């Protein structure tokens, strides 16, 4: 075996060992300083486009509670209750995009459109998320008054 080949093998072995050491360090950090895991995601629609044929919408999410972080191997998926509508979710799980089919598509009048975004992790099998986005749901009304009740 020549010196170059021997050196190449040593580099490969060292890289494998460093990878294992890095993985062990990450596991130790997780136990010493555990991060809060998200319990849900709050989505808001950012394009302000209507839920109509040919339109596109983008929903951006924020993990709840604030500051929580999903496991690094989190996998996200999204589905629609309307088979003609195919939303997508990015690798962070926080951006959901959809372009509605062209006319004559229209949202069902009997069942509101809903997207279910799910998340799971192999490294933290006890963690999972399932959030529902309802694109055409009206925004919560703004309060018009406040009522005070004396308690003492």
How many structural domains are formed by the residues? Answer: 2
Share in β-strands: 25-35%
Q: Specify the number of helices.
A: 1
Apparent shape: flat
Quick summary of this structure?
By secondary structure, the protein is an alpha+beta fold. It is built from 1 helix and 7 strands.
Supply database-style keywords.
alpha+beta, flat, Immunoglobulin-like, 1 helix, 152 residues, 3-stranded antiparallel beta sheet, 20% helix, 7 strands, 2 domains
Walkthrough of the structure:
This protein is an alpha+beta fold and 152 residues long. It folds into two domains: 34 residues; 94 residues, Immunoglobulin-like. It is built from one helix and seven strands; from the N terminus they run αβββββββ. The strands form two sheets. The protein has a four-stranded antiparallel beta sheet, with no helix packed on it. Strand 4 and strand 5 form a beta hairpin. The radius of gyration is 24 Å and the shape is flat.
Please specify the SSE layout and strand pairing:
Layout: H1 3-32, E1 40-45, E2 56-64, E3 75-80, E4 88-89, E5 95-99, E6 115-120, E7 128-133
Antiparallel strand pairs: 1-2, 2-5, 3-6, 4-5, 6-7
